[in-house]
Amino acid sequence: MIRSKAYAAQNKTSGLAPFELYRREPAADDVQIEILYCGVCHSDLHTARGEWPNTLYPSVPGHEIVGRVCAVGSQVRRFKVGDLAGVGCMIDSCGHCHSCAEGEEQYCENGFTGTYNGPVFGGENTYGGYSQTIVVKESFVLQIRHAADDLARVAPLLCAGITTYSPLRHWRVGPGTTVGIVGLGGLGHMGVKIAHALGATVVLFTTSPGKIADGRRLGADEVCVSTDDAQMAAYANRVDFILDTVAVPHDLDAYLSLLKRDGTLALVGAPAAPHPAGNVFNLILKRRRIAGSLIGGIRETQEMLDFCAEHRIVSDIEVIPIDYINVAYDRMLNSDVKYRFVIDMASLADA
């Protein structure tokens, strides 16, 4: 067994503190990664604080993992010691259901195994990236083609990047389409960057006038302050696709009315309480759709990483030491970060 320092929550009120865990020795098809950086996701907070059901304690969050390969099993062919590598939200799935066969492991009918908090439908706990090392089978390890100097800013792509890339690709966003991005946070700022790189006309919808300049800097062609009724009315029936990244309950009808006929409002934000019930006529009169999207499969996640490397897309981040994590969680709740925290895992040595 491989001993590793980590940070864990012991229960929903304990906060995160130093913890020691053990990883398995690499099997024939395993890759061991020395974790250099780990992004901080709202999912980490919800899980550690027991705000989502079925948290397994002790909880070691972290599913935006980048680092350097330090050992490989005898059957590993795509990685060698010294390579840069990443691990996202999943470390396993059943491998034989319809979704897995199509490379959509995130929708595994038998439940994928999360990088932390174990299998979706229950099972042994798993420990995430707030730790020094991780061992993952090769088929769930991702190749990093960004420059090593960008590694910290690449980490959030493993969740925020793929969460926004997957629906943009699924609904065929590209040149000639007008795309709305709702919210400019950890997810939204990646949505703006990726939609822009895909060639779409990008409209950012934000409640914060103070984010107008930042939205344009990140790639938005237009910015609409969504609390201004006149500004919102100007976009009625003009938008092909809207990606809603906001993770608090809000009025979806305000955005449905902006869609053209056959337009789609895709939800990727996951609020703790339901959105208010919508007006069905906003759907049926224009054949509009409300849809949802999770992350992406391993194949699509690798595609996203390669696309972002080609287009020089990385996340806007604030690097923190591990002992700052509880403060970082509170700041996240107050939207006090532009736009993603990333932990420098070298700080674990002194934690």
Spatial gap, N to C terminus:
22 Å
Please give the count of helices: 11
Largest sheet: 7 strands, mixed
Q: How are helices and strands ordered from N to C?
A: EEEHEEEHEEEHHEHEHEHEHEHEHEHE
CATH homologous superfamily classification of the largest domain = Medium-chain alcohol dehydrogenases, catalytic domain
Oligomer: single chain
Task: List its salient traits.
single chain, 351 residues, alpha/beta, Quinone Oxidoreductase, Chain A, domain 1, Rossmann fold, seven-stranded mixed β-sheet, six-stranded parallel β-sheet, 11 helices, 23% helix, 26% strand, globular
Question: What is the fold's blueprint, element by element?
Answer:
Elements (H helix, E strand, L loop, with lengths): L1 E8 L6 E8 L6 E10 L2 H7 L16 E8 L11 E4 L2 E3 L5 H4 L11 E2 L18 E5 L4 E2 L7 H4 L5 H11 L7 E5 L3 H12 L3 E6 L5 H7 L3 E4 L3 H5 L5 E6 L8 H4 L2 E9 L13 H4 L4 E4 L5 H13 L6 E4 L4 H9 L6 E5 L7
Helix pairs in contact: 4-5, 4-10
Q: Quick summary of this structure?
A:
The chain is of the alpha/beta class and 351 residues long. The chain has 11 helices and 17 strands.
